[in-house]
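Protocol step 4 of 5: obtain the predicted structure for the target chain.
Materials: sequence only (see below). No template structures provided, no constraints applied. The aim of this step is simply to have a reference model before the mutagenesis design in step 5. Sequence pasted as it appears in the construct record:
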Amino acid sequence: RVLEAARSVAIPHNREVIHIVKRGFSIDGQDGINEPIGMHGYKLEVETHIITAGAATVENLRECVGAAGVAVQQFILNPLASAEAVLTQNERLMGTAVCDIGGGTTDMAIYVDGKVWHTMVLAVGGNHVTSDIAHGLRLPVPQAEEIKLQQGYAIRAEVGAEDYFSIRPFGEDVDVNINKQELAHIIEARVEEIFELALQEIKRSGYDGLLPAGMVLTGGVSALPAIRDLAGDVLNMPVRIAEPEDITGMVDQLHSPAYSTAVGLLRWALSAEEKAFTAKKGRRSRKKGEKNMNFGTAKNLFKRLLP
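Step 4 output (structure tokens):
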């Protein structure tokens, strides 16, 4: 009930609560309680991290998915899903920022003491890198995306001056040789901007210098060669490139940072099903215990009444 009460917090009318993440409970002023069930007290309080989204966006997504014949049970924030697939328990406890650089956005969540303390979404991602390449090299967007994946590098200085590849820009009748350093220069500028914005957000959260486990980087863009070095230089913290672990079947296809969110969503849903099953099983056990208790009480009563 105390978690449901947290939903009553005042939020703008155009926002909708999608997550109430519990950080901890307090009973009669005693803080630091992770699981209050079974404890005694008069006043129960909860500290939460409330995540909201644009109400219109949520409704449009719900209708879009519904049009495909699928009912939406819950919306999950991207970095929370990715964290389910790539973060270790030690990273969550020590303090880390999971950063998922996807196509349209860069999403980040900060974990400290095993709990979520800050989340953010930046409106810049891999599609912007592709757009920069398309404009800089005068290419169609699909071709720019292909070149990013096949020839891309995150740090210009680490690309050989003699490395070239061929493209056919708009207005040209023949292929043109492009130095890979030119491509890397375009990519580096945008990716560096993404990490600078992420660092600003970490500082705004108050956790700058307080994340011993550093940043866990995932998402499709994190597959760029040398991106780990660039992130480390900008953020001045340890950086790990992560992909989904402990998966079976289709292993080759799913062992990629691009699938972290998808795998995390599956794990989130499975965990929710397991919790629901455990809770249902617990209620059945309690009801069975109550029935046995009532039967035993009635039997003892009859024993006392009958000769």
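Step 4 remarks: Residues 1-75 form one domain. The CA atoms of residues 103 and 126 lie 4 Å apart.
Proceed to step 5.
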